[in-house]
Amino acid sequence: MQMKVMSGNEAVATAVKLARVGVISLYPITPQTTIIEKLSEMRARGEIDAEIVRVESEHSAMAAAYGAAISGVRAFTATASQGLLYMHEMVWWVSGSRVPLVMVVATRAVGAPWNIWNEHTDFISERESGWIMGFAMNPQEALDMTLQAFRISEDERVFLPVMVGMDGFILSHTKTPVKVPSQDNVDAFLPPRNQPYIIDPENPIGMGNMFQPIEYMKLRESINSAIINSEQVIKEIEREYENVNLEGDYSILNPTYKVEDSEYVIVLMGAWSGDAMEAIDSLRARGKRVGMLRIRYLRPWSEREINEALRGRKGVLVLERATSFGRKSGPLYLEVKSSLDLNKTGSVSSVIAGLGGVSVSKRDIELILEKFIYDVETGKEVENYWYYPEKVKPIEPRIPRSIE
Amino acid sequence: MLNYQYYPITHPDKGAGGKTGNWRLVKPVVDLSRCIGCKACFLFCPESTIIIRQDGKVDVDYEYCKGCGICANQCPVKAINMVQEVN
Predict the structure, then answer these.
(1) Which residues of B touch A (CB under 8 A)?
(2) CATH 3.30.70.20 fits B32-84, yes or no
(3) Predicted confidence band of residue A403 (pLDDT cuts 50, 70, 90)
(4) Which of A356, A392, A387, A355 shows the shortest CA–CA distance to A372?
(5) In this predicted model, what pLDDT tens digit does every residue of A325-339 receive, in sequence order?
(6) Are residues A235 and A260 both part of a single domain?
(7) pTM of the entire structure?
(8) What average pLDDT does the structure give for chain A?
């Protein structure tokens, strides 16, 4: 294992290299572009021998990855935002076809109007498409989860595509130290590719046919069962992954932080979990018993783990960077609340923040939590609201001292 | 295989979709005296109902031929005639 300073995008490109991917389909979109740039550079330097296909749209990027995957090689693509929405049709086609492949989504706001910054709505809006969906918290996890994704996708109990999300810019472009596993360890972890069927002229099959309604419905139920059963599969694979990255914490799907004795728990997903952990430390220093539940897997949705972490708390606050227009909350809140036994849980509240790249700091999370705890303890009715950080003070323009 | 797993593929087989020959209004009849065995009809038939004989000339599988007439249209020596079906 080797420690390197790299961005989330470089970490993902490294994972793709280590997974010995056979075909990569490329279509650039910020903030994902440097993943495919890194892969192209690796290819130019001869570090990988993957076939790189430059396509004319994201719809084709997914179609090309799909075609490659059914021919029997590992396939990878990456996208974000408008690109993900443009490939939406193919996203469903791949899961419906039960084809294992891996895609990384560097999340970004969805237009109109144009906005290239971070928001989870693009990723979350794919949650009904039949993919396994994980979300990383830092570049290390982006690397680890991309490697695990190939294994999960190709497990016979799953045989579904896997989408790995990470926050655009906040993870995709921020460099942190990342432990890069050795090729030998990854080879031992990732067996040769396994998939339900391949294109083989000697043994022809019909694909993409019309299906009778009842058969179609059976297939949908099968996808549903596979996602539910994948919870167990992911746990097994994550445990095995500890041979690759000894220091990784992959004992459960959705990690918790200081949740055991908490009265209040904040539920969130992605990079700002790190800020939330710091906010929790500083709140605990002031005597507030707060913990965190981080949703790492949106699909499968581990109702058991979520219940275990949230049962009996005085308050649960769901903080999210995504919208569900028309509801007074975000999509994660709807998911969390539907999993809870509301007779055994206190107040549940949703706060939407940080959309389209609005910067949310540790201090903001502290404020949100303080207000929530105050509302619950004073018996006020908790509200679901959209949080705007206080305005940044304008900076007075001045000439840098060095050239004064 | 796991009992809940289901994959949307089919295994092609002769007549897997049922017999299609009864759709036909006109049927192709091969004039073997004119057939030169070029197999253009075999290549163009959308239903794979052209049978290649031992001598390289062709027959038609009437169980599945829908009578579309593509073979007659493609035949370079006009050896296939479309004949009205008699019921």
Answers:
(1) 1-2, 4-12
(2) yes
(3) very low
(4) A387
(5) 999 899 999 999 999
(6) no
(7) 0.88
(8) 93
Interface test with A, best of B6, B13, B14, B48 (most A CBs within 10 A): B6
Which residue range is the domain that position A141 belongs to?
Answer: 2-241
Report CB contact under 8 Å: B8, A204.
Answer: no
Q: Are A197 and B9 within 8 A, CB to CB?
A: yes
Q: How far apart are CA A12 and CA A146, in angstroms?
A: 7
Q: Read out DSSP for A53-106?
A: EE-SSHHHHHHHHHHHHHTTS-EEEEE-HHHHHHTHHHHHHHHHTT---EEEEE
Bridge-based pairing state of the strands A256-257 and A290-294: antiparallel
Q: For chains A and B, what is the number of CB pairs under 8 angstroms?
A: 48
CA–CA gap between residue A196 and residue A34 (Å, rounded) = 32
B27-43: pLDDT as tens digits = 999 999 999 999 999 99
The model's pLDDT over A220-230, given as tens digits with 9 standing for 90+, comes to 999 999 999 99
List, in order, residues 6 or more apart from B73 with CB less than 8 Å away. none
Q: To the nearest whole angstrom, how far is the Cα of B44 from the nearest Cα of chain A?
A: 20
- Size (chain B), residues: 87
* Chain A contact set for B10 (CB, 8 A): 205-207, 209
Which candidate from A157, A159, A205 shows the least CB-CB separation from B11? A205
| Claim to verify: residue A164 and residue A31 sit in the same structural domain | yes
ipTM higher than 0.90?
Answer: no
Minimum mean pLDDT range among A9-18, A127-136, A266-275, A386-395: A386-395
